[in-house]
């Protein structure tokens, strides 16, 4: 008992010591000094609540603890005394009130605790209901690949009980045909969730042998098995021995990249031309600024009215002591020097506040500068004398980098540049710091033109396509990244008001160009962008508020023949398409492509990724291939979504710069936005190969005149009991169908996706039914040359007779 009283006294003084210095009481201290309630305990069945109470001083707090009250770990000093949280019954609280303790707020009541218990019990009941029977496991993908550092197995699987966090999936694989499951290895799969929603389970592991099959089992009893496929499949055929490439030797600024494509167009006028995009950018320019004062409430931010390079950088400002008492605040301008003579009092001390100095500068030097207090501060602090401080725009690029608004240019390549050929758009460097991406664009333009005369495959592309390449969408931000702040992501437009326009924030101004587009935007409630002008994903003042984003859309709108697009970004090694954004409530995504469109994205992607692999073995992981929202995150207002949903353009996103596997450390290592040029060069070479393959996809699309062929599985006829019917096709198709015997049209039901990364749904036929359908491939060819708007009867049919 003596020891308990001793520890109580020690703990009490610890609390009082901490409160004396305005510190919070750490968890556990108050608990150590709290005695069990005795004389104030209620024996009539009353239930306690957690109540915040206020006591007058330390002595009152000491009495509270000495009386055996259950004081929690919360205690804070206020202007009126000390607030603490206590666990009390209603009668205990009344007794405390009579002692002068003031209740502040009831924090937790018995009903809240009971609600928590019910919530837990409901969760457990839901889990028991879900886990009462074995779950269903579906293997979405099982891919084997080799790169320059080793061999790997990637598996994605989904359980019907995915919403239960503690359901575990385990993968086991063999060593090849004829070997036992598990002989190759076993691994627990990672549960992948996004925005609180279960997506699927996944794993990526190095393997010593190529597996032929993989089994996935669930801790709930379900299981599945699938064949392991080669990823990304067979690459394109080797180019001719005369094919030339490797035309880049260093990172290029936008000025260099634009000059490069202009030279190419002059050299090959019969195959290329330059298109000047309609919206000039703000330019690599800023107003010059300086700050008077050192304390926040005494700072004045001065900004030139002229751009820095147009005279703002010649200005300077000083604050001087007039050297006499009762001097009025005065501002003089002479030979580009702005002199602020501070007001003084009767003793001769400076008394001008920051707010007063800012007002005087605006009034008397407003022709040259504007002034405001620091970050919204009232500016009540006194400004001290300060030597002449030059105003500067803080821009370090050499003079040959123009400070004028920039005309963004695209090179258009093709023998027939009249809109009669399938168009392809490739555009790079929406994000300024991604230095590798213009190299991909320039290298590709060089290859197309310099191989045309002697390589027949290149000639097929240039003769049959209309290719548009923009090497830098965001030239202002990119110049800033090269010369001023290498991590610049955005453009250089400052949409912040006075409160956040001091030069210390200059590296945070700008708009994220790839969050400024009009579909799936921040302004429509989609996730992945911000309305904060200092955010790295700032969406801008409104949809398409920036010339950079308007240029991309203007090019696509003017050239309606553009059917394919590639947005070149870095880094991370992703390959993605729409949907690229979702709303937070229920993770509502933009409309997903139908199964045929999705299959086309996948088939074309595998061709492109196989071409990338050919250069040095780089493999874009299957788990990093797919819709943006499935494999990365929500990116509200991105350009690919606008191209796809508004223009029907098959639009992809490269994220060049795949992680490199470190076999010694047994981990993946990232390469960054600006790797050593030796690495950047290799990334440009391999992704240029991929871009060339996209052109081949577009060429095949443009010459496709062959109708698709489809069939149902299992075959029509007599079946005992319900049957799940799926469609097989010769190529990616969209299928329209009816089940009531009527003639299918474009208004009929369209086959939907079965689920995330699952392909097309199956149709459950539980009574005798004739399925009528037609298929349309991505080039618009219709099976059997069927006319959905006509009266012909050459649609496809399959009758299923169900015997009960």
UniProtKB/TrEMBL annotation:
Origin species, per record, is Planifilum fimeticola
Peptidase M14 domain segment(s): 370-698
Q: Which cofactor does it need?
A: Zn(2+)
This protein's record includes keyword Oxidoreductase: no
Per its UniProt record, what Gene3D superfamilies does this chain match?
Answer: Zn peptidases
Q: Which InterPro entries match?
A: GH29D-like_dom, Peptidase_M14
Q: What is the protein's given name?
A: Chitobiase/beta-hexosaminidase-like protein
Give any GO molecular function from the UniProt entry: metallocarboxypeptidase activity
């Amino acid at each position: 008992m003596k020891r308990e009283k001793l520890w109580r006294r020690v703990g009490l003084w610890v609390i009082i010591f901490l409160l004396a210095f305005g510190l919070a009481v750490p968890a556990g201290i108050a608990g150590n000094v709290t005695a069990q309630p005795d004389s104030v305990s209620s024996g009539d069945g009353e239930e306690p609540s957690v109540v915040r109470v206020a006591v007058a001083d330390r002595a009152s707090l000491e009495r509270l603890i000495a009386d055996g009250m259950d004081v929690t770990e919360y205690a804070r000093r206020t202007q009126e005394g000390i607030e603490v949280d206590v666990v009390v019954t209603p009668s205990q609280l009344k007794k405390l009130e009579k002692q002068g303790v003031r209740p502040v707020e009831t924090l937790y009541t018995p009903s809240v605790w009971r609600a928590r218990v019910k919530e837990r019990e409901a969760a457990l009941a839901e889990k028991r209901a879900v886990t009462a029977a074995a779950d269903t496991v579906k293997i979405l993908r099982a891919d084997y690949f080799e790169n320059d550092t080793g061999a790997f197995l990637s598996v994605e699987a989904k359980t019907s009980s995915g919403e239960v966090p503690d359901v575990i999936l385990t993968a086991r694989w063999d060593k090849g045909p004829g070997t036992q499951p598990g002989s190759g290895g076993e691994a627990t799969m990672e549960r992948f969730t996004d925005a609180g929603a279960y997506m699927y389970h996944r794993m990526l592991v190095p393997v010593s042998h190529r597996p032929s099959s993989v089994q996935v089992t669930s801790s709930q009893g379900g299981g599945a098995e699938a064949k392991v496929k080669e990823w990304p499949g067979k690459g394109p055929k080797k180019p001719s021995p005369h094919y030339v490439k490797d035309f880049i030797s260093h990172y290029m600024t936008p000025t260099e990249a634009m000059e490069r494509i202009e030279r190419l167009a002059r050299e090959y006028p019969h195959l290329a031309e330059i298109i000047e995009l309609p919206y000039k950018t703000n330019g690599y320019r800023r107003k010059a600024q300086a700050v008077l004062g050192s304390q926040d409430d005494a700072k004045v931010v001065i900004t030139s009215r002229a751009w820095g390079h147009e005279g703002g950088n010649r200005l300077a400002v000083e604050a001087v002591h007039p050297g006499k008492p009762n001097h009025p605040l005065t501002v003089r301008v002479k030979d580009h020097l702005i002199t602020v003579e501070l007001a003084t009092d009767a003793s001769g001390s400076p008394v001008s506040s920051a707010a007063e100095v800012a007002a005087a500068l605006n009034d008397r030097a407003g022709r040259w500068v504007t002034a405001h207090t620091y970050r919204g501060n009232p500016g009540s602090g006194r400004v001290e004398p300060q030597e002449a401080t030059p105003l500067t725009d803080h821009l370090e690029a050499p003079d040959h980098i123009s400070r004028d608004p920039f005309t963004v240019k695209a090179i258009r390549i093709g023998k027939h540049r009249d809109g009669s050929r399938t168009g392809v758009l490739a555009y790079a460097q929406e994000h300024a710091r991604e230095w590798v991406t213009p190299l991909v664009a320039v290298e590709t333009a060089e290859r197309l033109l310099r191989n045309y005369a002697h390589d027949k495959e290149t000639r097929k592309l240039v003769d049959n396509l209309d290719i548009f390449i923009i090497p830098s969408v965001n030239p202002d931000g990119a110049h800033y990244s090269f010369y001023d702040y290498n991590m610049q992501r955005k453009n250089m437009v400052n949409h912040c008001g006075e409160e956040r326009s001091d030069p210390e924030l200059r590296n945070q101004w700008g708009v994220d160009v790839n969050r400024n587009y009009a579909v799936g935007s921040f302004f429509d409630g989609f996730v992945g962008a911000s309305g904060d002008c200092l955010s790295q994903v700032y969406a801008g003042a409104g949809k398409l508020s920036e010339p950079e984003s308007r240029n991309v859309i203007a090019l696509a709108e003017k050239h309606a023949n553009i059917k394919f697009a590639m947005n070149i970004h870095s880094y991370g090694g992703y390959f993605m398409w729409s949907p690229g954004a979702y709303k937070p409530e229920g993770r509502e995504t933009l409309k997903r492509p139908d199964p045929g469109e999705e299959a086309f994205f996948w088939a074309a992607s595998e061709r492109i990724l196989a071409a990338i692999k050919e250069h040095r073995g780089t493999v874009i992981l299957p788990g990093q291939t797919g819709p943006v929202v499935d494999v990365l995150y929500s990116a509200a207002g991105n350009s690919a979504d606008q191209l796809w949903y508004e223009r029907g353009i098959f639009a992809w996103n490269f994220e060049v710069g795949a992680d490199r596997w470190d076999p010694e450390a047994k981990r993946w290592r990232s390469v960054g936005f600006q790797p050593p040029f030796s690495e950047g060069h290799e990334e440009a070479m391999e992704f240029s190969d991929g871009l060339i393959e996209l052109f081949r996809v577009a060429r095949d699309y443009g010459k496709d005149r062959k109708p698709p062929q489809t069939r149902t599985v299992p075959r029509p006829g007599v079946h005992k009991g319900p049957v799940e019917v799926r469609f097989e096709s010769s190529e990616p198709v969209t299928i329209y169908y009816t089940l009531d015997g009527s003639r299918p049209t474009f208004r009929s039901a369209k086959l939907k996706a079965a689920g995330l990364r699952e392909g097309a749904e199956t149709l459950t036929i539980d009574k005798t039914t004739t399925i009528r359908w037609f298929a349309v491939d991505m080039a618009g060819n219709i099976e059997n040359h069927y006319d959905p708007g006509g009266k012909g009867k050459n649609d496809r049919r399959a009758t299923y007779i169900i015997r009960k």
